[in-house]
């Protein structure tokens, strides 16, 4: 491995500013899972850049490969195991290279990763990233390094992330870490620890940094943003999510603001009312419902009923008539009957979701569901139920897009469309993707587009 220097590359910035440098050890990071992991990889890169690392976009050219992992479902973990096999082949030609597993799988599997995969030199949990430079040094001496301590305080609030997005238009700020909800199916409380919120001043500083870097949109992220709560040690004053959202909206009136994920038991009318008062807060809420059956919601320990969820949807539609709503659904949870599955379908139809992430239940070792409930829905039943849910959502997505025909939307341009270089793509405030002929526009512009066609996934239009 190359010698490390103490050069500070940049306190903040974009990955493309960290050009590969032959004189510095080069790190390659691959990220799986949710937006929180993307935000964490950006923090990791910042820590390493400050400690004299350069970046590599090709694992074959790297001195250190880090894989930031997800444990949420078994198939997420399987993807990572396949990548480790791949990295093990790459390392054959570069024996000095170090391979580290970081993130949720590191936290869940700990030493097992080192014991079962010869290629793994480092295992580092989500609260131990500050130790990365030291641990890499330690692993460089041939000693395998593990740090999976969870913290009640770590938020990385003082670290300005190095952004890894492609277009420099939209970025994430993690406003809280961990989760206290203990949904019975979910591994996150075990892999990411207890909830803690970031100092609002640090969040505002990062929002301002993003404006300076030319970003036009920020998404405030956390496992359950509605339970964001900052208590000042000096004054004892508390700041809630609703207050934070308003502060951010006022601080950067020209920037679009999004947030995710909301929890139905905590989403308040106050948040909806702040959204209605600020044009720059995007009109989209991601509100996972998981199941349409109150009995299953109870087994999942979600803390709300079908009726409560429906009432929250009504509140959104009342207070924010042009707001889009997306959701997460788990099908085939322990003991789910056919009738309960139909309740999920009927809630979907009633709510008319604009978009949904849909999953088969995947039992996670160590969770309450794994310990106390039987994963008794056969795989083929889970698959069939998932297909029914996906087919219904496709229709609902199509209906949602069809309603937008002939309307004019402000679209924040993100880049060139995948299918044609002549077309651009961007998003409406409602988070719907719009494709339109580029003309003279560029990423970061807000363009008024009239919608004249659509698929279930995309709106198509022309600028007006
Ligand atoms: N099996 C399937 N889906 C899960 N999710 C969380 N845990 C599991 C699991 N064990 C889904 C939920 C959550 C989303 C991020 O992932 O729908 O909202
Ligand atoms: Fe993100 Fe959850 Fe996956 Fe961890 S387990 S990476 S928190 S989705």
Structural summary, described in words:
The protein has a six-stranded parallel beta sheet, sandwiched between helices. The protein is built from 14 helices and 23 strands. It has helices at residues 35-50, 74-92, 104-109, 111-116, 132-140, 188-192, 200-212, 241-251, 269-277, 294-299, 306-319, 338-351, 368-372, 379-402; strands at 13-14, 26-31, 54-55, 64-69, 98-103, 122-124, 145-147, 162-163, 170-174, 176-177, 196-197, 217-221, 229-231, 238-240, 256-260, 284-286, 324-331, 355-360, 408-416, 423-427, 433-437, 446-454, 458-463. It has four domains: 15-147, 3-Layer(aba) Sandwich (Rossmann fold); 165-282, 2-Layer Sandwich (Transcription Regulator spoIIAA), CATH 3.30.750; 289-403, Transcription Regulator spoIIAA (2-Layer Sandwich), CATH 3.30.750.200; 408-463, Nucleic acid-binding proteins (OB fold (Dihydrolipoamide Acetyltransferase, E2P), Beta Barrel), CATH 2.40.50.140. With 464 residues, it is α/β, with parallel strands linked by helices. The model is unreliable at 1-11 (pLDDT under 50). Bound molecules: 5'-deoxyadenosine and iron/sulfur cluster. Iron/sulfur cluster binds next to α1 and α6.
Keywords:
alpha/beta; Transcription Regulator spoIIAA; six-stranded parallel beta sheet; five-stranded mixed β-barrel; 14 helices; about 35% helix; binds 5'-deoxyadenosine; binds iron/sulfur cluster
Strand tally is 23
Measure the end-to-end span. Answer: 55 Å
Main pleated sheet: 6 strands, parallel
Poorly predicted runs of 5 or more residues: 1-11
Individual helix count: 14
- For CATH, the homologous superfamily of the largest domain is named as Methylthiotransferase, N-terminal domain
